[in-house]
Amino acid sequence: MNLIPSRKINFLEPDEEEFTLSHKNKMYFILAYDITKPRRLTKTLKICRKYLNWVQKSVFEGHLTETQYKSLMKEIQKVIKPDEDSVITYCINDVHYLQKEVTGIEKNELSILI
Prior knowledge:
The protein has 114 residues and is an alpha+beta fold. The protein has a domain at 25-94: Alpha-Beta Plaits (2-Layer Sandwich), CATH 3.30.70. It has helices at residues 16-22, 38-51, 66-79; strands spanning 6-9, 26-34, 53-56, 59-65, 86-92, 100-103. The strands form 2 sheets. A 4-stranded antiparallel β-sheet has the order 3-4-2-5. A two-stranded antiparallel ribbon has the order 1-6. A hairpin with a 2-residue loop joins strand 3 (53-56) and strand 4. The longest helix is centred in the middle third of the chain and has 14 residues, at 38-51.
């Protein structure tokens, strides 16, 4: 049985002061969706790309302020049908506790995760 090797992504630890200034009031989000109709899927994809980094077919990640997150979700709620589609978000308040592991092909490799 051959296993696909996985790669751990080591997050660069930026200068603490620089990190604090650039990410003040921002939280790290992971968003995944399952949209049933192609038209709503395309619209949802475009909305998510405005706010977050695309990493898999239906998965996005990145830093957002609370206001940006609310705007993102407001736009998504206008497009999706809650009885047919789903959007799941995970919020991570402290990226020092985040570890990402990729097995197989990384769809949209980021050189640095901020």
